Amino acid sequence: MERSIIPSRFLPDYRIELSRVFRAKIDLYCYIVMAVFALELGAGLIFFRHILNRHDLPGILGAIVFSGLLLLTAPMAKTLRAQKGRAFLFSLLLILIAILAPVSQPEIMRYMGIGLVLLALFPGILLLPWNWMEASLIGLFAVVNFIWVYLVTGIYVNKEVFGINIIWLVLATVISAAIKRSEEVLRQKDFISRMEIAEKNAIMAKELDLAKKVHKSLVPHSIQAEPADVAVTYKPMFYMGGDYAKFQFIDKEKLIFVLADVTGHGVSAALLVNRMHTEIERLIREGLMPGELLKELEGFISREFGKTGMLLTAFCGLLDFADDRLVYSNHGHPPQILFQSSDKNIVLMRSQTFLMGIGLEAADIWHNDISFEKGDRIILFTDGIIEAKGPGEDLFGQERLEAFAKDNSELEPLDFNRKLVRELEDFRDGPQDDDIFLLTIQTKKKNTAG
User: Fold this and answer.
1) Is the pLDDT of residue 58 over 80?
2) Beta pairing partners, 338
3) The domain boundary residue, chosen from 202, 226, 246
4) What's phi and psi for 304, nearest 5 deg?
5) pLDDT tens across 246-283, in order?
6) Residues 359, 270: one domain?
7) Buried b vs exposed e over 360-386: b needs ≥16 C-beta within 10 Å?
8) How distant, in Å, are the alpha carbons of 69, 93, 322, 324 from that of 33?
9) What 8-state DSSP symbol labels residue 376?
10) What share of the chain is helix, strand, coil (3-state, %, to 5)?
11) CA–CA separation, 87 vs 316, rounded Å?
């Protein structure tokens, strides 16, 4: 076998691919040969009995039977060498049929014999992935058999015509071998390129999986605590996304929480989220109030990501269970929901300023201070919920979300989240087209028993 440029680590896969190609093409050619000769036999018996004679039948039936036997051997040929063996037999069969056909019909085939041989030679060589040496062997087989059959039968009118046909056959063999030499190099280069791309894709997939695990580690877990239960639901659009949430009990009487939504999806948004997570943890440790925290975060985003064009909305809140006060700051985020359990009323915590990353150097610190009662529920979400598209581009919308909050206020926070996600899936017309983050905080009434 000629020297291969395939790296040793790819050779087993290359042989498997070649074996698959040989099997598929030989099976196809066998079916074609069987169909052609069966049609020839049928047409001869029905319409051309005066042309068809007993000398034709063995060749026609032999071609059909031999092709059928080759088809039966396909499952048994497990290796590339075995599949090549089938292909050699098939190619040689076609050439022998083309060479022997004029013998039975010399008057008709006298000047067409070389044409038939070339028609058998070219498909047998050019349509299969032979190397140049294998192509030369097939061509040599055709030349040798053409010479002895036509010398024995003496079918040609003169030696000049016979000599010209031999020249044509040798030229066809040389041309075919040259084409196969070039084709083999191109085929191997293409295979190497595809395998290297597959290797890189596998590495990237592994890296993405690792990045997904790292990103997932930033998603907080649902908890049950004495002052409040917090249910967390996160469904990224891709492997990872640009939605982010963080909550932390500062002490037994205070809970701070942040929800952010970075523009875009996938890895680029997730990278910003990872950087932002570290900064938010630092700001929480400094004991900043929501407005101050988002103000500092705005400066960080502008400094570190101002040239990337990435923007984000953010909401930060602080629940003070001792004073029943909720302080919040909203930078471009959708109106978040405070559900008052006593009268089933909804208070919307609307945006107070622009989203982050646009580079505004405002000195103002934005925050509001509102009261809440024990038993009230806070529903924090990103726009992947209210902008979910239903039939006819209809959006799920803020009103549906508020109605859902009222109708399902008796559900436990985690059950509330799960049911809302199911409603979104039933409503959505098509695949998920944005990240979804849902944070439901259920404050608890003090236990006065005993």
Assistant:
1) no
2) 347, 378
3) 202
4) -85, -30
5) 999 998 899 999 999 988 777 777 778 888 999 999 99
6) yes
7) eeeeebbbeeeebeeebbbbbbbbbbb
8) 12, 11, 89, 87
9) -
10) 55, 15, 30
11) 71
pLDDT tens profile 295-330? 999 989 888 887 777 889 999 999 999 999 999 999
Query: Do residues 355 and 323 lie in contact, with contact meaning Cβ atoms separated by under 8 Å?
Result: no
Residue 160 shares a structural domain with residue 252: no
The Cα–Cα gap between 365 and 254 comes to 21
Q: Are residues 263 and 391 in the same domain?
A: yes
Smallest CA-to-CA distance from 297 within 220, 218, 355 is with: 355
Residue 266 and residue 119 share a domain: no
Residue with more model confidence, 56 or 263 = 263
In a domain, 112, yes or no: yes
* Alpha carbons 67 and 65: distance in angstroms, whole number: 5
Q: Is residue 5 part of a domain?
A: no
318, containing H or E segment = strand 312-320
CB atoms within 10 A of CB 100: 18
Token pair 């529903």 in the structure block, residue? 379
Rg of the Cα atoms in the chain: 39
CB-based contacts of 414, cutoff 8 Å, min separation 6: 222, 231, 440
Residue 46 resides in a domain: yes
Q: Which of 55, 152, 171, 166 is nearest to 113 (CA)?
A: 166
Task: Give the pTM.
Answer: 0.65
Closest Cα to residue 261, out of 246, 247, 273, 274?
273
Domain boundary among 202, 232, 249: 202
Q: Are residues 234 and 291 in the same domain?
A: yes
Cβ atoms 336, 348 nearer than 8 A: yes
Residue 240's CB is within 10 A of a number of other CB atoms, namely 25
For residues 134 and 274, membership in a common domain is answered with: no
**Host domain of residue 240:** 218-443
- The pair phi, psi for residue 447, each rounded to 5°, is -80, 110
**DSSP class of residue 336?**
E
Domain count, the chain: 2
User: Which residues is 436 bridged to in the sheet?
Assistant: 235
List 326's β-bridge partners, or say none: 319, 370
SS3 429: coil
Q: Are 408 and 346 in contact (CB under 8 A)?
A: no
What is the Cα–Cα distance from 43 to 39, expressed in whole angstroms?
A: 6
For residues 51 and 42, what is the distance between their CA atoms, to the nearest angstrom?
13
* Residue 115 token pair: 């044409």
**Distance between CA atoms of 264 and 352, rounded to whole angstroms?**
23
CATH of the domain at 410: 3.60.40.10
With vertex at residue 60, the alpha carbon angle to CA 57 and CA 64, rounded to the nearest 5 degrees, is 135
> Residue 401: its pLDDT value, please?
97
297 domain-assigned: yes
